[in-house]
Design a protein that fits this description.
Blueprint lengths: L4 E7 L5 H16 L3 E7 L6 H17 L1 H13 L5 H12 L2 H10 L3 E4 L2 H12 L7 E4 L16 E4 L2 H10 L5 E4 L14 H8 L7 E5 L8 H9 L6 E5 L4 H13 L4 E4 L5 H6 L3 E4 L3 H9 L4 E4 L5 H12 L2 E4 L2 H13 L1 H14 L4 H13 L1
Parallel strand pairs: 1-2, 1-3, 3-4, 4-5, 5-6, 7-8, 7-10, 8-9, 10-11, 11-12
Length: about 375
């Protein structure tokens, strides 16, 4: 038997989406590609403590406490010339704080690298440009948008979420790089088409009532207890499942609220059963992160998107609305109105479900890995 091809997956734990995309590739490789050996590394485990705090905690604080500032930063960095002194200084600082990562890359000695965040791609780009590395490096963009920081020379290829982003890449990225429209990788479980009736029995949901799934991301952001309270005031008889992620304070508040609405509200903390919950949901209420929305699309579940982070999530929301797979709520009043509308208009809900299913790429991880492995054959 020939030796397994070693594929290194590099991500960054600034938000959960980049990590989930890399983990989706890792799990898919274990399931479907015995000829591949994958290793998933979080770049933040190979940086100084100060750099980690700025890059991860600083990001979360900025998007929650000052979204307007984050929008400005997102837009300005998208317009910035990569040759400018400030951009060169930023990249030099990143390299100084990530030397341990380069040692880890060399220790694994991969045949190829897939980056689900632009930071490791930038670091490896510098090594390739200085002729200290000859690895093929691939970049998986994890939003329905293309920020300029994802664009860099010396990459073997890019994977885009949709055809528009692929077209943008072809205009902005050097001609030697391959561009593939594969979608955003989601966990293999989202491609297994879970049995909705079995999932309802598993969670004790009434099959005669519609169910809405409210998600706030891995950190449980978005004032979920207040949102749930507003939705439970709607006169329709439906069940509401709320995922609080790892936010214990929010989970406790939801449990208190559930006691006041027996049989209508089911609060859950962090779970690996999101795919089964989505399978029996009439629609999902979620922040428009690239991974969360790709998971919904993979299962053909309509969405109401709310609380978008300025920048990438706003652009994700625009894409989903334009494609007819989602509605958007700007506040709790708008959210309640849209939930009521979907409950009252089954034809609209069915049309959104069809659009979501048409956009879904449940096999994106498989397609990405197949392309990379074919290049190594």
């Amino acid at each position: 038997m020939p030796a397994a091809k070693k594929i290194l997956l590099l991500s960054v734990s600034a938000g959960a989406g980049h990590m989930r995309a890399a983990e989706a590739l890792h799990q898919c490789a274990q399931r479907q590609f015995p000829e591949a050996q994958t290793l998933h590394l979080d770049v933040m485990q190979y940086v100084t403590a100060a750099f980690r705090k700025i890059y991860t905690s600083g990001y979360m604080k900025l998007v929650t406490a000052s979204p307007t500032m984050w929008r400005l930063l997102y837009e300005k960095s998208d317009e910035a010339d990569p040759r400018s002194p400030m951009q060169k200084l930023r990249r030099a600082s990143e390299r100084l704080n990530t030397r341990a990562l380069l040692r880890a890359v060399k220790d694994f000695a991969p045949d190829a690298v897939i980056c689900t965040h632009f930071l490791p791609a930038e670091l490896l780009m510098h090594e390739i440009r200085r002729q200290r590395m000859t690895l093929p490096v691939w970049v998986q963009v994890t939003d329905f948008d293309l920020h300029r920081m994802w664009i860099m020379p010396h990459m073997t290829g890019y994977f885009a979420a949709n055809e528009e982003i692929a077209a943008r890449m072809r205009l902005l990225i050097e001609p030697s790089a391959q561009i593939h429209c594969t979608g955003i990788p989601v966990m293999p479980a989202f491609g297994d088409r879970p049995d909705a009736a079995g999932a309802r029995r598993q969670f004790g949901l009434d099959p005669s009532h519609r169910m809405a799934l409210l998600m706030g991301g891995g950190a449980g952001m978005g004032g979920l207890d207040d949102v749930a309270r507003a939705l439970l005031a709607i006169e329709h008889d439906f069940q509401l499942v709320v995922l609080a992620g790892k936010n214990q304070e929010t989970l406790q508040a939801l449990q208190t609220l559930a006691a006041q609405h027996p049989g209508r509200l089911m609060p859950l903390g962090f779970t690996d059963q999101v795919h089964r919950l989505m399978a029996c949901a009439s629609f999902v209420i979620t922040k428009p992160g690239g991974l969360s929305t790709s998971e919904c699309l993979a299962l053909g579940v309509p969405m109401i998107v709310n609380s978008p982070i300025p920048g990438q999530e706003e652009r994700n929301a625009d894409y989903l609305l334009e494609q007819g797979a989602a509605l958007k709520a700007v506040d709790e009043i708008a959210l309640a109105w849209r939930v009521r509308r979907l409950l009252n208009e089954p034809g609209l809900l069915d049309a959104m479900r069809q659009r979501a299913a048409a956009l879904g790429r449940p096999q994106a991880a498989r397609d990405v890995l197949q392309i990379v492995l074919d290049q190594l054959a």
